[in-house]
């Protein structure tokens, strides 16, 4: 799928970008070029220690910001595939710096789309978040706007052979800002208790590997305009704390600004345009000049979800347990993890 192609990853020096590069190099040895596009000079330096250009000539490291349209267009010359992972992702950071969040998450999305249309890119997949579903914080609102920009981009491509789609998923284990390293750091730094925002709080759970697999699925199957959503388990925040530090008491400290008690990925209203692909769901664009509802259903060999369906972390059918979270931490985050 990616052999012989040039791939650009915005925000490519982040957690997702590093895992995506690892997978491409492992599974697509004949990839033509991988461009790491980010503004993180130190992060790119650290990536070069693992994948130096002298040993991996297919890798290119571009310093650039998605806010800079001219730089985006320059970087996208000759690119076949764009994976858009760049974003301001911290909920509280977005609340305190709204204009900066909008510049990156909304204006940056517009710049990626413009660059793709200008440079003859064939496939674009943008990363989203469960917080974009019925958003109550600025981060979620900007990502919902970004989602709409990418799905609508298929309607303005004209005769260009390009497809835009989105993948939306929940909390990534071990990523920047994840609760797992936070709890482990609290435990190992001598804390006498573990802070829990709310004992009822739930979240969706996904590993980086599963996130990469979802992007690969989208690249291989999208018609354009879909928002792909994985079927993944939920967890209680308090169970994660118990898995990491079972001997420490948990104290409730209250929900942070802009935070939800539970997360949704498909609302009841979204479900009217949602199809079941088996392993994944896909929300179809409400306005599409390229494909009709039946085209999507036939292409994906899918079926509509039932009326009244919604997909929320508190009403999920799949649940992580304390023990399964420990196994996941060892498998996906810290191989030498020990319970203390």
- Give the SSE order as H and E letters: EHEHEHEHHEHEEHEEHEEHEEEEHEEH
Given this structure, which CATH class is correct?
A: Alpha Beta
CATH-level-4 superfamily name? NAD(P)-binding Rossmann-like Domain
Rg is 20 Å
Measured between the Cα atoms of the first and last residue, the distance is 44 Å
Mean pLDDT: 96
Overall shape: globular
What does this structure look like?
The protein has one domain (6-333): 3-Layer(aba) Sandwich (Rossmann fold). It is α/β, with parallel strands linked by helices and 340 residues long. The mean pLDDT is 96. It starts with 5 loop residues before the first strand and ends in a 7-residue tail after the last helix. Strands 3-2-1-4-5-6-10-15-14-16 form a 10-stranded mixed sheet, sandwiched between helices. Strands 7-9-11 form a 3-stranded mixed sheet. Helices cover 37% and strands 19% of the residues. Helix 3 runs parallel beside helix 5, helix 7 (179-188) runs parallel beside helix 9 (237-244) and helix 9 (237-244) packs across helix 11.
Structure summarized in a few sentences:
The chain is an alpha/beta fold and 340 residues long.
List the helices and strands and how they pair.
Blueprint lengths: L5 E5 L4 H13 L5 E6 L2 H10 L8 E5 L5 H7 L5 E4 L6 H6 L1 H22 L3 E5 L10 H15 L10 E5 L3 E2 L6 H10 L5 E3 L5 E5 L1 H14 L5 E4 L3 E3 H8 L5 E3 L11 E3 L7 E3 L3 E4 L9 H8 L2 E2 L6 E2 L9 H12 L7
Parallel strand pairs: 1-2, 1-4, 2-3, 4-5, 5-6, 6-10, 7-9, 8-12
Antiparallel strand pairs: 9-11, 10-15, 13-17, 14-15, 14-16
Helix pairs in contact: 1-8, 3-5, 5-6, 7-9, 9-11
């Amino acid at each position: 799928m990616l052999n012989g192609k040039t791939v650009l990853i915005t925000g490519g020096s982040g957690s997702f970008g590093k895992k995506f590069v690892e997978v491409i190099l492992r599974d697509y040895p004949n990839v033509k070029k991988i461009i790491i596009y980010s503004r993180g000079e130190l992060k790119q330096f650290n990536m070069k220690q693992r994948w130096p250009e002298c040993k991996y000539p297919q890798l290119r490291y571009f310093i650039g910001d998605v806010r800079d349209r001219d730089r985006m267009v320059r970087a996208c010359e000759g690119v076949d595939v764009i994976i858009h992972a760049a974003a301001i992702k911290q909920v509280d950071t977005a609340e305190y710096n709204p204009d900066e969040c909008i510049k990156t998450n909304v204006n940056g999305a517009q710049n990626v789309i413009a660059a793709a249309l200008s440079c003859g890119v064939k496939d674009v997949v943008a990363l989203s978040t469960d917080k974009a579903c019925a958003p109550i914080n600025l981060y979620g609102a900007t990502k919902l706007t970004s989602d709409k920009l990418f799905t609508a981009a298929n309607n303005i491509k004209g005769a260009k052979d390009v497809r835009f789609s989105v993948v939306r998923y929940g909390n990534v284990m071990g990523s920047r800002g994840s609760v797992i390293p936070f709890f482990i750091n609290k435990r190992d730094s001598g804390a006498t208790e573990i802070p829990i925002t709310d004992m009822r709080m739930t979240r969706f759970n996904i590993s980086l590997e599963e996130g990469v697999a979802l992007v690969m699925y989208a690249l291989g199957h999208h018609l354009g305009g879909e928002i792909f959503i994985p079927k993944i388990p939920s967890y209680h925040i308090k169970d994660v704390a118990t898995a990491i530090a079972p001997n420490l008491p948990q104290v409730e400290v209250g929900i942070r600004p802009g935070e939800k008690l539970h997360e949704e990925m498909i609302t009841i209203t979204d479900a009217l345009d949602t199809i079941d692909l088996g392993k994944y769901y896909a929300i179809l664009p409400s306005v599409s000049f390229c494909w009709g509802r039946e085209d999507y259903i036939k292409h994906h060999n899918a079926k509509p979800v039932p009326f009244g369906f919604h997909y929320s972390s508190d009403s999920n059918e799949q649940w992580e347990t304390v023990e399964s979270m420990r196994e996941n931490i060892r498998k996906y985050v810290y191989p030498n993890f020990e319970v203390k």
